Amino acid sequence: MASYPIIQSIQDRRSVRKYDSRPVERDKISACIEAARFSPSAENVQPWRFVVLDDPDVKRAFGEKAFSGIYRHTRWALEAPVLVVLLSELNVVAHRIGRWIQGIPFYLLDMGIAGEHFVLQARELGLGTCWIGWFDVKKTEKFLKVPKHVKACGILALGYPQPRFRARPIRRKPLDEIAHWNGWNRPFMQSGGKSE
């Protein structure tokens, strides 16, 4: 497999909602989790936990709970050969006290970084993914029997994209609209030169 610079994988990544039926090799899933394992985290608490659902019967039973009621719109994800539930162990200092002082849920930042490491490794391996945030958190945690100090943060659908899947060009705002040098609303110059 060709080696891509990281920016190429970032630019090529798309949310995939149509998957081929072939199973995903467990060594490739492990490689994705290994990539996530090297993510940074607040106070290096490494809160990430992953539950991989690749058994069709377990996945179907899980979907009946996690994607029920107002979350039915997400049932398309059950077509993916694999669902990976992203969970965080809530650390007292880094997460609870940090949130109280800063007002920022650091565990979500930690899980977002770990999840994106997973997604980019999947892309490198020829796999497609889709982040899922629309699911029943309480039913997910109950189904997985996680302890009270563990929080479900998201789900990743994972599999080989259908052969006819075509990545649409993605629209992104230009750099000068989203980035500023040395303060708010100061022109961003891509060359890094000083602005007037």
What does this structure look like?
- With about 200 residues, this protein is of the alpha+beta class.
- The protein has a single domain, classed as NADH Oxidase.
- Helix content is about 35%, strand content about 15%.
- It is built from seven helices and four strands; from the N terminus they run H-H-E-H-E-H-H-E-H-E-H.
- A four-stranded antiparallel beta sheet has the order 1-2-4-3, sandwiched between helices.
- The N and C termini lie far apart (about 45 Å).
- The model has no long low-confidence stretch (mean pLDDT about 90).
What are its keywords?
7 helices, 4 strands, globular, NADH Oxidase, alpha+beta, 196 residues
Strand content: 5-15%
Global Rg: 19 Å
Number of helices: 7
The CATH homology group name: NADH Oxidase
| Model regions low in confidence, pLDDT < 50 over at least 5 residues | none
Indicate the percent of residues in helices.
25-40%
Q: What's the SSE blueprint?
A:
Blueprint: H1 6-12, H2 26-37, E1 48-53, H3 56-66, E2 82-89, H4 92-102, H5 106-124, E3 128-132, H6 137-144, E4 150-159, H7 175-178
Antiparallel strand pairs: 1-2, 2-4, 3-4
Helix pairs in contact: 2-5
